[in-house]
Amino acid sequence: MRDVDGVNAGYARLLLDEYLDNPEAVPPEWRALFENGDSAAVRDLPGMARLIARLPESDGAARDGAAPVTAVPATPESAEHDDTELLGGIAAAMALVKAHRMHGHLAARLDPLGAEPIGDPAIDPLRLEPKLTPELQARIPASILRVHVPGETLADALPRLKETYCGPLGYELEHIGDHEQRVWLRKAIESWRFRTPLAADEQRQLYARLCEVEGMERYLRRAFLGQKQFSLEGLDVLIPMLDESLELASSAGAHEVVIGMAHRGRLNVLAHTIGMPYEQILREFEGERAIEVVAADAEGGTGDVKYHLGAEGYRDTRSGKIAVALAANPSHLEAVNPVVEGMTRAFQTDRTSRDAVYDPSAAMPVLLHGDAAFAGQGVVAETLNLYALEGYSTGGTLHLITNNQVGFTTDPAQGRSTRYSSDLAKGFDTPIVHVNGDDPEAAISAVRLALAYRARFGHDVVIDLIGYRRFGHNEQDEPAYTQPIMASQIEAHPTVRELYGARLVELGVITQAEADELVAEVDVRLHEAHDRLRASFGQAIPAKAHDDSVPLEAATVVDTTVSQKRLRRLSEQLQRVPDGFTVNPKLARQLERRAAALDEGGIDWGHAEALAFGSLLRQGIPIRLTGQDTERGTFSHRHLVFHDSETGEIEIPMQRLDGAKASFEVYNSPLSEYACVGFEYGYSTAAPEALVLWEAQFGDFANGAQTIIDQFISSGLAKWKQTSRLTLLLPHGYEGNGPEHSSARLERFLQLTAQENLRICNPTTAAQYFHLLRRQALDPIARPLVVMTPKGLLRLKNASSTLAELSDGSFRPTIDASVADRSHIRRLVICSGKIYYDITGHELAGEANEIAVARLEQLYPFPVAATRGLVAAYPKLDEIVWAQEEPQNMGAWRTIRHRLEEAAAGVPVRYVGRPWRASTAEGYPTAHTLEQERIALAALTI
Ligand SMILES: Cc1ncc(C[n+]2csc(CCOP(=O)(O)OP(=O)(O)O)c2C)c(N)n1
Predict the structure, then answer these.
(1) Which residues' Cβ are closer than 6 Å to ligand 1?
(2) pLDDT tens profile 653-712
(3) Cis before 130? omega within 30
(4) pTM (2 d.p.)
């Protein structure tokens, strides 16, 4: 029988706690005891005695590597009340340790401006029951508390525990559901593995870096008084933290780090993290005040403000060179987050063989957030939600909140309901490290811990870097109007460079003279760069204005044909399932119909799409397709992923095509538009060779991603020379399903078009869709494509195609009516999309001999020549009618009317469609039917 004393009893209590938290975490013999219902026994000493007596001799340590229990022999003379006191003390000590881990951050000294932490009674040893007096603390062996700080007893360990959890770093990790991660983090934090002191030369380097950070901001402010720079001052340690991140990413094998950030400190990141020469940054400032500033560059781009520009550079690290990309971003805070994730994922993916090979170690995403923005912008949550999803994971993102404790003029208490800016991340099981921005060494250790955690668990991690904003929101703002107390505190507060310099002088690492010398050197370097820049003035090339009045039709002719033999072979492989795989019988019948369609005609939309994809894969074009329920297709028309009806196993024939030279990725997306479209945009910019498609459930939902559409997809080329072949598939068409399932808001996309920034099409046959997809992938000029895709037409016989229509021909921007004798045609109806079938399928269509109905399949760039040709083919026209099912203030009419009138060459152009409406469509099916009928009739009756 083993000794039973307060210490071992305490250990058993601890194990019970642990068991209740996570049964797997306790040694099996203990688990067995607790499972047998003996947990109640732990509550009292005699119960413990019984319990421990039944244990085998070797009780083993808990699995997380904590020291085995120290068996303190029971002293025969110890009074029973001593045992009781010790047992109580151990319980309190355990609570104290737990409280430090859970609430220590509330007592941490995180605010450089010195705000008193609120603290928490649970971490006060004298407020526990029983009071943990120094004497009692000295009787409690630290080993049974399973802490990782050094010390024999609680009395030895407690100061270090306080220093760990309540110093310049505060940790939140106890919310994490995964026991292994919690244990790993506790150990890493309490052992100070990542808080090893910096060597003297590292300290000097760190100080020199802070001189550069501060020196650049100061120089810019002096040299360009009143220009916006969104200074980093107050959060200067961000730059050394990024330095450390690059070092660690590189040593872990990454060859690319992708950074997303807003305005704050961006110029500093460009110079010091990306390595952009000072001259280039100074040029931006000079350009702003130069008289000869140009409105547009040679390619018609209109540019962007300097604190939005993207950049790429290479940095030397101890482990070699690493590429660093800073994603271009708009003012819209946090919008760049998913874009960076998509870019990173593209860099992590090898698309050169049938299976996309995803290697998260190849690149690392770093997102910098404002404290107000992180808490307030919904896209943050949407992006956090991607981290563990198969199609979206990037091996964990390093999130750095540059927390200056104010959002423009808004105090945190007005900006969020939570204590910390970072609190949202807790819902994603993410560890959070808060760090005082005036302690550069603590900040570096936060990065080390965060990236070790990321490397170990492939999980997002957040560092909340708490600093202040030395000046106003920008350099034209007066902070004292709205934050007067804070502003005066900041004015009296030394900079982090000054504080750290003074500390190093005190430590004897540098002399005051050396500290001052480093400051002066930075100033000299900036002066010299500015002088060199000034000397180069006058050599700039004048920009020529771009004529955007005439949009051009696609200049290049792209061969989109595929031989019938190849299409047959593809079709057969796409329907093939492995032996023993059971396809749902209804689906099997659909597949059989597809096989027959090759000979009989009736190749439907989903079939044509699959053939387009398959043919592109054989040509070496990688494809990535995502969207809500996209694997099957919202309208059950796609079925790229088969599910074995008996085992649930999955089969993706597209990934098994013979001779495919590129990867095919297909994923159901989470229920997000903003982050998901942003992600695919980012992916598509970093994978220019790939055809990246995002599909909306219904086209209307794309407006959840409006910021990405407005700020990136449509304007990225003009602002940042950044484009891609991202393709949006937006189900569109009036089928009586109410205001939210009818319109993809075609008008919005058309309104965004100019300078050939987009392609917008509304194809009406499977073959047109086939050729359009192939053209989009193969056109040497990359542009985003917006496709109004059908719903009812997916299965409409008339909208299906023959094998010959796929194998030959090309995408036709207009489709003429098939009228043999045109001399009696008095009205040409031109329409786009599904309404074509409503008009031509109407019972009166056959009698409308004087009317021809043509289709406009490409709305932008507007097919000027083709439309002119269309009109010219009808010599006796009295009028042209533009027919649409959308209301008059929506759809294509208002954007293309002048194009139609130009092409009409004097023939009057008239509108037929829904009247002006505030809402896209009728809510009642009967009202819808009446309206469709009215439109068709109006188009068909003269
Ligand atoms: C989506 C969006 N809404 C509003 C703004 C206007 N705005 C620009 S900066 C700012 C405050 C940002 O505060 P914070 O996130 O704390 O970053 P800081 O500027 O303090 O670094 C606001 C509201 C914006 N840029 N984007």
Answers:
(1) 264, 331-333, 370-373, 402, 404, 406-408, 473
(2) 999 999 999 999 999 999 999 999 999 999 999 999 999 999 999 999 999 999 999 999
(3) yes
(4) 0.92
